[in-house]
Amino acid sequence: MTGTGSLLRSLECRSCGGIFPPDRPTSTCPNCHHTLLAHYALDRLDGPAWIRAVAERPGTIWRYRELLPVQDLGSVTTLGEGGSPLLGLGTVPGAEDVRVSAKDDGLLPTGSFKARGMAMAVSRARELGIRSLFVPSAGNAGVAMAAYSARAGLSARVYLPERTPRPMKEAVRRYGAQVVEVAGTIREAGERARADEKDRGSFDMSTLREPYRVEGKKTMGFEIFEQSRATGLPDAIVYPAGGGTGLIGMAKAFAELAELGLLEVPPRLVAVQPEGCAPIVRALREDASAVTPWADPRTIAPGLLVPAPFSAERILEAIRSTKGTGITVTDREIVDAMADLSTRHGLSASPEAAAPYAALPKLRAAGAIRSDEAVWLYQTGTGIPFSIDELDRTVGRTLPT
């Protein structure tokens, strides 16, 4: 078999309603420049039969191949991503009456959930004949793109904020990608990247500026559905929101499963952001239809230092479609959560991955999480590149802008 059986039908823009063929390299909507999302011929799939077939396949993201965009098996670029474990946490201080588990994507290739999106996007780029890729990144996405580009034989350039942790910069270089360091946040890295790459013929792999990273992140939702079949879906999934692709991906997965007759009520999606950079949470609190850029963004969590998420309307839509909410945590609470996850639960968590754990007692106190609910914390990355002692000292100082 050379084909994957993908039922990819079109690329669609929810902002203007445009529908486009998926058989050529495409970034954002040609009409309004918003995010395009992949749509599938779900009417051709028997949901119950499909999920039974999926259960018999190897435990990577590619087990869901009919609802993924890659058409040709020869284009699949994989490092074995997917199938991250779900780990019960027992009693969590401040949320003792909640049933808490952690889904740990820090154990995926390249150490973060970015492996899901980049495996998909690089595979699709390869299939469509793209040879040169670039991405602005806070760290993990750049590492993942560098690794999967090396695997696919594609050239890659990664634009990183200067304060990106040194181990991440070194990892990008070890995979053979070029690193361009930029002063400021990922916003400035994105501006520099798009200016530098304008006439190079390279393809922009930025968050939500191409259609397929979200399809890789969609597998988070599919795995959550599969892992919960014996015990029931969690009531809520608490997720650290930077660019927000994972929220869109999970909501998309739940919507597709519902259309296939496999799911009735999705888990509530809860976005966690740091107090010093919380544009999504602010928009939720103000019941706004769009996100306004965050002035003077500050946080120790590089992946959450996203002052103006692209296509944030889709992020808000994902949260609201599941009756979810948002909450902020302090950098002090993030560092304490990293330490507690390590010493109490034996889990290595990046600052971003620790944010949901830090948020849980606050969510319980606010009534956003109720007694005896099942809550899954999405751990997005390993803590290996980070020194808790160093971060502990940092939160006692004024963070640089």
Structural commentary:
With 401 residues, this protein is α/β, with parallel strands linked by helices. It folds into three domains: 68 residues; 209 residues, Rossmann fold, CATH 3.40.50.1100; 91 residues, Rossmann fold (3-Layer(aba) Sandwich). The strands form three sheets. It has a six-stranded mixed beta sheet with strand order 4-5-13-10-11-12, sandwiched between helices. A four-stranded parallel beta sheet has the order 8-7-6-9. The protein has a three-stranded antiparallel beta sheet with strand order 2-1-3, with no helix packed on it. Strand 10, helix 7 and strand 11 form a beta-alpha-beta unit.
Give the CATH architecture of the largest domain: 3-Layer(aba) Sandwich
**Overall pLDDT score:** 95
Roughly how many Å apart are the termini? 53 Å
Can you count the helices?
12
Q: What is the CATH level 1 assignment of the largest domain?
A: Alpha Beta
Shape: globular
H-E order: EEEHEEHEHEHEHEHEHEHHEHHEH
User: How many strands in all?
Assistant: 13
CATH fold description of the largest domain: Rossmann fold
Instruction: Classify the secondary structure makeup into a structural class.
Output: alpha/beta
Give the amount of beta strand, in percent: 15-25%
Q: In order across it, which strands form the biggest sheet? A: 4-5-13-10-11-12
Gyration radius, to the nearest Å? Answer: 20 Å
Sheet with the most strands, sense and barrel status: 6 strands, mixed
Oligomer state of the chains in this structure: single chain
Into how many domains do the coordinates divide?
3
The helix content, as a percent range, equals: 25-40%
Low-confidence stretches: none
